[in-house]
Automatic annotation (TrEMBL):
Pfam families listed in its UniProt record: Uma2 (PF05685)
Presence of the UniProt keyword Coiled coil in the record: yes
UniProt keywords, alphabetically: Coiled coil, Endonuclease, Hydrolase, Nuclease
GO MF assignments: endonuclease activity
Name of protein: Uma2 family endonuclease
Coiled coil regions in record: 200-248
Organism: Iningainema tapete BLCC-T55
Residue stretches making up the Putative restriction endonuclease domain: 35-162
Lineage top rank: taxon: Bacteria
Amino acid sequence: MLKYNPLHCLPSSEELPDSDDTPVDNELQDLIPGLLKAILALLWADRWDWFFGVDMGIYYDPDKPAIVPDGFLSIGVERLIDEELRLSYVLWEENIVPILALEVVSKKYRGEYTKKKQKYAQMGVLFYAVYSSRRRRKPRLEVYRLVNGSYELLPGNPVWLPEIGLAIGFERGTYQGIPREWLYWYDETGKRLLTPEERITEAEERANFEEQRRFEAERLSQEEQQRRQEAERRAQLLAQRLKDLGIDPETLV
């Protein structure tokens, strides 16, 4: 854990640049962490002790520029600080190091497997995930855990992160109409958590199913009522015919 001298005049988040002005290589560097954040926003809707940053600078040293992961998760911090939201994530203000940092490799490497990895280890980030959909011979998603100051690769897909209470992994799916491989959150049984779009679709399908059930129940009720009415009509006709023959229907009971 990095430590800061409270006697030093440290810059605030308002005084620090809120971006390193480095453009992302690809939409995926925003969409992939954005999807993870959207899933958490639904899953943890009632929790206010977490923050997920997308393409936001993390200031860890007053004398150095921010490091900007594609996504990061902090637990134990205020989800909202004010109506203007966070401009950046300043460690000497938050006092909590992110528990997870995510890098999405696009066209070219930018130190995701080397210098950035070292910086996250120095910061004390517990989990570091690197995803590269272009990799063929090596795992496309690598998730590391910080052990005694160094990162150790965790096996599996998805990878369980006990301190977060979720697993992270990849599989093919559709997000914002784009069919491809995406990163998702999973529960401890390995079941993938639904995206916001999937939850809407599921809710609509459930509503349609319930409407169909209601319609079918009404149809069956109407058919039963019609059968009763037809049986009563036939009974009345039979009784009338018996009377016409001089037979009292009551004597036949």
